[in-house]
Every structure is written in C-alpha cells, then in structure tokens.
Amino acid sequence: MASEKSINLLIVHPSEEEAERILSLLRNYQIAVRPTRCIDEESLLGILERKQIDMVLCQQIQQQLPTQTVIDHIKRMGQDLPVIALIDDFDIDQISDAIDAGANSYCSPKLPEHMRHVILRDMKNLHQRRENIRLTQELRQTEKRVNSLLDSSKQAIAYIHDGMHAYTNQSYQELFKYDDFEELEVTPFLNMIAKEDVAKAKKVLRDINKNILPDEQLSFEMITAQGDKFDGLIDVSKATLNGEQCAQFIINLPAVDPEVEKELFEIKNKDLLTKFYNRSYFHELLSDDIDQARSQPGDCLLMIGVDNEHELEKKLGIGNFDLFIANLAEYLESKFGDDTTYCRYSDALFILKVNTSIEKAEKAAEKISHLITEQIFDAGDTSTNCTVSIAVTQLTQQSQSVNNVIKTLTDLLENTLKKGGNQVAVFDPAEEEKQARAASQAWIDRITGGLENDRFVLHYQPVVNIDGDDSQSYECLVRLKSDDDQLIYPQQFIPVAIKYGFINDIDRRVLSKAIEAIKQADFDVTLFIKVSSESLSDSAFPGWLAEQLKQAGVSGQKLALEIKESELVTHATKMKPIIKAVKALNCKIVVEKFGSGLNSFSILKHFPVDLLKIDSAFMTDLVDNQDTQEKVKTIVQKAHNQGKQVICEFIEDANTMSIMWKMSVNYIQGNFIGEPTESMEPVE
Prior knowledge:
The protein is an alpha/beta fold. Helices cover about 45% and strands about 20% of the residues. The strands form 5 sheets. Strands 18, 19, 20, 21, 22, 23, 24, 25, 26 and 27 form a 10-stranded mixed sheet that branches. Strands 2-1-3-4-5 form a 5-stranded parallel sheet, with helices on both faces. A 5-stranded antiparallel sheet has the order 7-6-10-9-8. Strand 3, helix 3 and strand 4 (about 85) form a beta-alpha-beta unit. Helix 11 crosses helix 12 and helix 18 (about 540-550) runs parallel beside helix 20. This is GGDEF-domain containing protein. Keywords: Coiled coil. It holds the Pfam family EAL. GO terms for molecular function: cyclic-guanylate-specific phosphodiesterase activity.
C-alpha cells in the first residue's frame, strides 16, 4: 500500500462514467485512492497477480464479472481483501446475494456518507488485520527463535518453578545424565546439588520465591543422576513459562567445533540417498513459510508420488529401486532448478516448494508429469519408466499448520491414486471456503433450531464415590436431537457453537436443565457439568446462576462445575473473579483433564478448586504401563496432601477399577461403572 492514508482501490463496474463518479465522491471526502478498474475475469486475474490491491468495490447487479467470481479468485490466490458490494437501492435480494457470495459489506453511491463510513471502516479493519498478522508473525518468530535456541543450545538450561524443574533442554538432561524431561519433572533442583552446597542452594531458592534474584553468578558443586560431581557456574534470570513466573538457570557448556556442527547438520537434516531435505527439517522450513504466508500469498507445494510404487519396487528389487529414486530426484532437480526447495518425504514421495502462483504451479505440475511419463530412468543394471500423481496447493492465510497443509496434499494424492493415478490435482481454497461455509451454516441452523425448539437433552453417567459415601453423583452429558430424533454428540456441535458464539446459550440451557433435574429427583443428587471458558469469562454468569438456583430452590452445593486445566491457564486473568463468585454460591469447582500441563498443581494456588479429574489420556494404557501408574499415583498422593479429592474417568474394565482402589482415588466414572442414560438411577 502506498501509505496508510491512500487506498489501492479496484473497481469492478461496467460503466467508466459511474466509476469516475464514485471516485469523485471519495475524493470529495478526502479519501485518497489509487484506482484500477476491470470488467472481465482475465483482467481481474492479471491485476490480482501483479498489483497491490487493498480493497474491491464491485457492482452487484452486473453480470460480466459477478461478485461471487471476484471473491472466489481472491480466495483462490490467498489474498485478504475487503470486498464491498455496490447496491443501487439497498435491494434486499441484492444484499442477500452479496452476503451469500462472501462480501464483507455493502453500500450505495446514492448514500455517499454511508459509503464513506463503510470504506473507512473496512480499511481500518484491514490495517488492524495486517498489523495483527505482522505482530503475530513477529511473536511466533521470536518464540520459535527462543524455543530453538533453548532446545539446541549447547548450554544447559532449566526453568525452575517452586524449586521444581518446569522445563529442561537436551543439554541440561545430558549434563546431569537423565534420559528425558519426564524424569526430571518430578525431581527437585536441590537433587542436582551436592550435599555440601544444599543449604546455600535452599537460601537461593527461597530468595527467588520472594522475587529476589542473585546479583552475581552462582557457584555450586553439582551432582549427576549417576552420582558424579562437578563444579557448576549458574546464571539466574527471570522468565515466564505458560504464563507462570519462574527462574531461568543457565550452566555454560564447552563450544562445539563449527565444522563438526556443519557435518552434523547434513547428517541430521538431509536424505542420504537423494541429498534432498528430510521430512523433519522440511517441516521446520514449512512452518516458517506458513507464518510468512499470513501477510502475503506464499510458495506453492507440489507433492509428487510415484504410481504403483510397491509393484515397481518388487519388479526392480530394493537396491535398483533406490537407484531409480536417486535418478528421479536428480531429474526433478534438473527441471526445477536451484530456486526450488526439495524434500524426500518418504520412499517414493517428494515435495517441491516453488516460488510461483497456483496457476503456474498447476501448469508446471502438468508439464513435469508429462515429461516423467516419456522419460526412461536408470535403475542400476536395468532401466524403467513410470508415471506420477501430483497434488498442488499454495500457502495462504488459510494455511493453519504444517500438518493441515500436508494432510491437504496427501488427501488429494490419495484421491488421484483411487482414480488410477497419473493425474494432477489442485486444492482450490475458494471452493473449499464455500463448502466449509455451507457446512458451518448447516450446523448453525441445527444449533439455533435446537435452542429454539428445546432439542438439547441431558444424559447422566454415574460418578461413584468409593470412599464409602452413599450420596449419588452423575455427570451431565449434553446431546442434540436432530430433526429425525437421532442423537448428535457434543464433539460434533460444540466446536461450531464456540466458533459462532452459541456456547454461552448451550451452557445455560444445560445448567437450567440440570438444576431442574436436581429439583425433580427422588433422591439427594449432585451433578457434574462441563462449563466453557466463555461462560466462566462472562461477568453476568454468576448472577444468572444465582437466580436459577434461587428460583428452583436448589443449593449450589449440588452443582460441580468442570473446566479444563488448559483453559484455566490460558484465561486465568478473566476467569479468576468469575470462578470466585461461582464458588461463593457454594458450587464445587472441578479441574478437568488435570495433569496435562507442565506444572499442573500451580493452578491450585490461583483458583478455589475442590476436585481434580485426572486427564483421561492416562487411562488408555494404565493397566499395562507401570510408568503411567506411577504418574497417576503421584498425582493422587500430591492432590490428597493438598486436601483435594480426585476423580478418574474412563474406567472400562475390572483391572483398571482394581488399580483405582489401590491408589485411593475418591471418585470413579466410566462405562464399567455405568453407561450414560436418559434418567438418573441410584447406583448400588
């Protein structure tokens, strides 16, 4: 963009005279524009590819270049441009068509003051998005540099929180001869200090907890896991990890020879057969490229897979097949040149990163596919020909992560192979966006219909106290009934509800039904209910809940509200006062998926927690994995030492049940105890 005060404006309008009149109106309002006009699809593609455009004004009723076509091409090229539909008389049908097409706004030249407001508003939003992208990119790059420096540093680095290891890098683990971080995670820092210096180290840790850092480098005699001692010099500085204040401890290590580092880089990051980058290093490069693509369209990716790979390997033999792959890699490099980044992603699968547009990348893919079909490749003492299937995509703002990009390519490639191979498939972001929008709208309709027609229902799963308490407890599990009375489970509709702002309404509907169920129950019952971070960040939520309890005559003691550990950490500042107010209603607070974080017990210092529900991931291999059993046992013991009760869910068999008894868990839940049902039945 020329400056913050000028707009590179593209006008899609069949009338040059009317386009000039619009520009004149804008200039009368002191809006500086650098205009470009187009009236057909071919010129639009050229303008979007060659020119810097900030905004598009598109007349809605003209047919030469419809708004939908304009928006599709913008999305296909991965550009973030506000598209404003020009509506002559604010016709309802025209407005509806513009919104369905994906236009950001609409206005009419007949109301120039409104048009001015819309253009300035959308430009302000664009500036803010671009600035957010820039700042987010800078932050990610900074975080990556910091994490990369920490992980790859030859210095031994640890983050210490309350005297415990919250993070250690590989060099630290190697220095103290520990196999992995999980082993260090439950090891106090004092265990690294020789007996003679423990008293001095205790004083340092007490000072750090009081926010008093040492003025100079610390000198300790240190001890490894195997009992070897050495003299260590430690630099201490302030740091944060996952929002928690901690201290960074750095122990200097000898430098590594640069030539050795270079050799290690080649060994670690390149495929020995083709000299292309290997998968793990290519993922690192791709992650950086995705970040850059958030501000402007990025490179294109060509995933090239050899058709009938296994039959070809069987025909040639393993040794000759490797020579064929090396020859194919050399051929690809000769055709695409030095400006392309090459990766051997798996045995006969390559990814090429090319700096070009999606249209040119598609043409290049078609050409190389044809050339490979005609080529004879050496394969040791024989030769062979082959065909390839190619998937093409471009890095854009919509490219969420490396895994999503790779999945897009592999899905495309698998589809071409199902059709017989020897084809080129292109991922079209515009088409994908339309399909996603249609799918989202269908879910929005289901959710709004469910709220309006009371189609959200509760199922109840027993939560059994094994301490001998006879009280009855259940977890409320919400379901949405479809139009044909089929049950839709929360993992299908909750993400959409969160994205489009319905989650508060669903939370309140579930809580209202739960409170009514408590009131109507024939026996004393407590209900466990999952509540979103959105509700527990809403200042109006405690007052609403208090009114619901009062109207029903139900005590807050009968409600146990569950919130995920990760959400407590992420939204701590917003949620603290809300949870405190909810706790004042005598409701219990349960931390769900507890133990999933680096330092889970730090949460207990900040929130009035009653129960801890251990992360269900621990349950998947609990019976067969002694290490997992020890981790769960440690969590349970530490929780009990701090006066907290523990729930374990996903109890699916008698063996897991037996382990729970031995660990003195307070509550258990799972299909072995009782499956979710539409009514609450007392558990014997």
